[in-house]
Amino acid sequence: MKWLLLASVLLTGVAQANTATSLRPLPRQGAATPAPERAVIVEVSASALAPRRSLRPFARGETVVAERQDAVRPNTFGTQLKNAFKKKPKSRPAAKPSKKVSKSLKGSVCGDPSIRGEKISRIPAKIKGCGLDNGVKITEVSGVALTQHAKIDCNTAKALKTWVDKGVKPAVGRRGGGVKSLKIVAHYNCRTRNNQKGAKISEHGRGRALDIAAINLKDGSSMTVLKGWRSKKNGPALKKMHKAACGPFGTVLGPNANRFHQDHFHFDTARYRSGTYCR
User: Fold this and answer.
1) Domains in the chain, CATH or no CATH each
2) Mean pLDDT for the chain?
3) Contact call for residues 270 and 208 (beta carbons, < 8 A)
4) 22, 46, 85, 105, 145 from 194: Cα distances, Å
5) Which residues neighbour 52 within 8 Å (Cβ) at sequence distance 6 or greater?
6) How far is the C-alpha of 6 from the C-alpha of 40, rounded, in Å?
7) Which residues are CB-contacts of 165 (< 8 A; sequence separation ≥ 6)?
8) Cα–Cα distance for residue pair 267/248, rounded to 1 Å
9) Reported pTM
10) What is the tens place of the pLDDT at every residue in 11-31?
11) Per-residue pLDDT tens for 138-161?
């Protein structure tokens, strides 16, 4: 019996000791004993525990593997933008020469499509002071034909074109349908001035001169220097043409110059003159 009493005392002391050390408040006397607490088990998917690198919301039932693949998707836009700056611009092919321009220059000389003719070989001098280097044979200027070709240099050919454009065509206007051709009576010729013995070499002997005797119109009529210079009908127009030549040419001679020029205009591009000599 002593042993039973001792065991009972010991058990009672242990129970009191446990009650003293517990932080949970003791229930009041007479109150209903609360039900024991149950553990709440929350299921967490593996995808929720994975570190998120994308702001895209997870789809229901999405697997961890799919989420990881989306998180490490490469930034292709940044790579493409970077490569675009590395690419060098393609060089443009060299411009091909215009066929239209080359076609318009075909059959022309002196680099001017309105001066028609061909280049000629060098003409050697028969006497000292004559000869023509880099000469051309002109057949048409600004749409106006020459009754015979004229062997001259390009400087004289360009002066002739200027005279036709600014002198002949404006003076004629629409009369007779317009200008058709120029009557050429002299061009390159190795000789002295006015064919006078002992005279200086003419500019004709250097390919720098032209003699023009008439302006032919499209209706078949002609304005001749010999008959028209002093006539009321053609005189004013011929005098305008004569005056317009003073500038493009260095020497301009007509019927008022001397007896040698009663039937033609003499035009030349003499190099030795500082100004224009017009008679």
Assistant:
1) 107-278 (3.30.1380)
2) 79
3) yes
4) 150, 119, 77, 37, 26
5) 67, 71
6) 43
7) 142
8) 9
9) 0.63
10) 455 445 444 444 555 555 554
11) 999 999 999 999 999 999 999 999
